[in-house]
Design goal:
Layout: H1 2-29, E1 49-52, E2 57-59, E3 67-73, H2 80-95, E4 102-108, H3 116-123, E5 131-134, H4 137-146, E6 151-155, E7 166-170, E8 174-177, E9 183-187, H5 193-201
Parallel strand pairs: 3-4, 4-5
Antiparallel strand pairs: 1-2, 1-5, 3-8, 6-7, 8-9
Length: about 200
Amino acid sequence: MLRNSRVLMPYLLVIAALVGGFLWYQSEQVPRMGRVVSTGSIDVGGAFKLTDHLGQPRSDADFRGRYMLIYFGFTFCPDICPTTLAVVAEALDKLGPDAKKIVPVLITIDPERDTPAVLADYVKAFGPTFVGLTGTTEQIKDVEKKFRVYAVKRPTGESGGKDGTYGVDHSNVLYLVGPDGKMIHFYTETLSPDDLAKDLRTKV
């Protein structure tokens, strides 16, 4: 028995290393998995060139001098996206004049359906300061990678997606980007409007 254990030990160590590496990789890709990082001490975020809900080209440079509170979601999202954006809207209302320092931004993870017109109709429900951003599939994938966003299509409906219906499973993270374009904080749990407003007051 002891001899068998010694023979198997190298294989067990290799398996353990592979599992550990996989979990580390997942924690790097999805902020909600593994480690919880709440500061800008890791490389998250970066430059982007997208199209806003008015059909105008927008880049990260257009927001310099103001904070961005960025959320990655989609307009067909049934619950978590509108809930999170409603929390953001209420939190900004509670900030009063300080809310002018922050631009709330929705970057779609569903560019196929979320055209500028669709985004325009959607973001106006949360407030006049909200900005919706979309782009080509390649542009969206690029910004998702930079912000380490998890987003995967999932077939839905009675046909199992054969009729083209689908949802998108995705991470639920709010990113606070500073006036210099660098991420300074992110929220990995849905906060109450009061808690979010309280924390934003300490950072903007």
